[in-house]
Amino acid sequence: MEFGKMAPGKNALMVLNPRGDKRLKLVKAGFSWTTFFFGFFVPLFRRDWKWALIIAVVQYALASILDSDSLSLAINVVLALFYNKVYINDLMNKGYQGVDHDTQARLESYVSEFRSYS
Predict the structure, then answer these.
(1) What angle is formed at CA 87 by the lines to CA 85 and CA 89, rounded to 5 degrees?
(2) Which long-range contacts (CB under 8 A, 24 or more apart) does 102-109 make?
(3) Edge to edge, what strands does the sheet with 25-28 contain?
(4) For position 104, what pLDDT does the model report?
């Protein structure tokens, strides 16, 4: 099975391959439903320690300061909107790249608007 062909649809799964290594990572673009429902556990399971800590601190701090379910829901929506993009951007900064030119172009296009803010 060719992993590069596992990327159908708008919320495509894109395969990343670190430079000089043949291990593959499968990542998802778009809204992160797992982050929406499970919060900081998603970056924790992905071994993304920095964002696990950031999301945990933000969720805990805002939950303890503001006692509002609707605000908590809004925070989860914002985190879910941006986490996959942040994760892919961090992987690309670590040297990961698409398995082929098409995947690489899609990755760069996906994180380009995020990179313009940083």
Answers:
(1) 70
(2) 102/4, 103/4, 103/7, 103/14, 103/15, 106/7, 106/12, 106/14, 106/29, 107/14, 107/16
(3) 25-28, 13-18, 96-98
(4) 84
Say if residue 15's pLDDT is above 50: yes
User: Which structural domain, as residue segments, surrounds residue 90?
Assistant: 3-117
**Count of CB atoms situated within 10 Å of the CB of 10:** 6
Stretch among 57-61, 62-66, 76-80 having the lowest mean pLDDT: 62-66
Q: Helix H segments across 1-118?
A: 33-38, 41-45, 49-65, 69-93, 101-117
Q: How far is CA 21 from the centre of its chain?
A: 21
Average confidence (pLDDT) over 65-93 = 85
